[in-house]
Amino acid sequence: MLLRVLFPLACVAEIATSVALFVPLLGLGSAVRRLPARPDHPAVRRTARAGVRFAWAAATLLAVKLLAAGGMLLAGPSFAQRPLVDLLVLAVPVTLTALRTLPTLRRLAGRNEPVPAWSALARTRFALPARLLAVAGGATAVLGLAVPNRGVFAGTLTVFAAVAAIVAIDTEQRDRRMSGRPAGMRWPRAAGRLAAPVLLLVTAAGCGVTGVIGSRIPVAMNMGMHEPHGHAATASAAPPRSVTTLTGGPLDGPVHHVDLTAEEHPARLTGGATVDAWTFGGGLPGDPIRVRQGDVVEVTMANHLPATSTTIHWHGIDVPNAEDGVAGVTQDAVRPGGSFTYRFRAHQAGTFWYHSHEISHEQVSRGLFGLLVVDPAGGATADMDDAVLVHRWHTDRGEKLAFGADDGVRLRQVRPGNRVRLRVVNADNDTHQVEVTGATWRLAALDGQDLNAPGPLGDEVVPLGGGGRADVELTMPDRPVRLSLAGESGPAYVLSPDGRSTVDAAAPGPELDLMTYGRPAPTPFGLGGRFDRDETVDLDQGWWFHGGSFGFVWTMNGQVFPDVPMLTAREGDLVRVTFRHHGRFDHPMHLHGHRVLLLARDGEPARGSPLWLDTVLVRSGETVTVGFRADNPGIWMDHCHDLTHSAAGMTMHLAYEGVSTPFSVGTASGNLPE
């Protein structure tokens, strides 16, 4: 828990000091360079005193950076890569400045100290360390802001090494001029002032042009031919299979048919705010779908949006790959006026949801999502079974957090003694904390999977990342019960014996430790078992080029989509994936088409009920290890379900060997899944 609080603070401190440190270091280097040009001794002392003040400011920021590095090291050496690289870059010039420049600078700043000859103030031994330290400060500022990958590190250090060489030449030539020694080379005075800035400007302009052009979304890119992650792809002996053939075979038995219409439909929240919404069926959220386990689900989606293509992805349902609904990977996006029919068998009982996977960060935000519940084959077991979909709407009155369209308190009468099941779907990007006030309750399921022997809970809160689901079960008491989100003034769902009385939310208690909740049960594999594939995915952030522009991006192994190498697997492989979160903000990682078993968090194995998830919350500074059986062939997205993060680069794919796709992502096809 301490690390969860400390690591994000250390990240902020590390980035802030990387940028802020450049200012006093530049001031110190500039003061040292200007000393020989001061007109008189008082001016020399004033400049020296300014340099000393800059040095003290830099020392303070360096101390903060060291503390930040220590805090990040608590999560592991790889988590402190940025500050450790910065400190290595700064180490030599800091040491030389402390030994050669600062003692003289402090003497010059003294009131009664004699001022040496002007030529002594230009000596290379005195001036060069501080000027090189300013160059190193510029390098660490860039490294602190840019995405952390080897290419960026190498390019940045190469450019600033060239700047350091220019500064060294300029310092030596000034020393020679002022001491009367031969110049040794032709070096105009203007070169000392202009060479380094011109080099940096030309480099920045070149990087900008190549970055903007090179990062544009391709006209067409086939995800079945993308570069694999970590190792070369192994050719499959079997003939290639198209994703269009991966339909799950014949689908016999009862068919539950649903028609959904995607349309633009201004809608109103219960509090009166208006949403310029896109909906599946005209409501907020879209039409709910409720089927029974084993049913064949057939959904025909007609796109009546005026100028926007769309799809439907079945979040958490392990559908055959052809039915996954990802534009450019498993189908072409459905254009305005078109339609598409999805067919799959609902093998899994539980709480799920559906949403668009074409420009999903925008379309889901505007309302293209809905509830999907699969009841057990024997029927629902609760007397009262309802669901709330958490979502933050952009309205004419600003942002409004709501349960569906309810941004206030929803009341429902429930008879005391009734068994209640409340299904919470986080259709928002942010992580929310689910809390229950007024009754003892149990966390019955996560991500549609029932937990084994869940124990009674009181004031505990349950963290739920974007895309995740939590099922709450309780027996209705003779007093009101409130389901709400910790730390939020609204919305709330109140169950009341008389349908009128309510209850305020209690102060939130501790966060439920999901790693120890419930009772252990046998699983087909464990943390220490043998895996056919073992992958590590580093999650981070920074400023870089993406989608033809420069901005803040979210990275996987130092890259952004579409340049993130994909994971590969053979059908039947047992795969272990370790996520390491080096940055800030939560990342709910969602692998399509599979359930993963949460094996360990920060090296500690799971000790409670097995946690079979489709959306795994990875928090700042955490290392989370999951495993899954590659038993659903296809090409599957694996991305952060904070869809703003996914749209800004945090997307990769899992590709089965021998599977191809006829579809392409890009501007030509109009298939833009994120």
TrEMBL record:
It comes from the Bacteria. Pfam families: Cu-oxidase_2, Cu-oxidase_3. The chain crosses the membrane at residues 6-28, 54-75, 87-105, 126-146, 152-169, 190-213. Keywords: Membrane, Metal-binding, Oxidoreductase, Transmembrane, Transmembrane helix. SUPFAM superfamilies: Cupredoxins (SSF49503). GO terms for molecular function: copper ion binding; oxidoreductase activity. Residues 265-376, 553-655 form the Plastocyanin-like domain. This is Copper oxidase. It comes from Gandjariella thermophila.
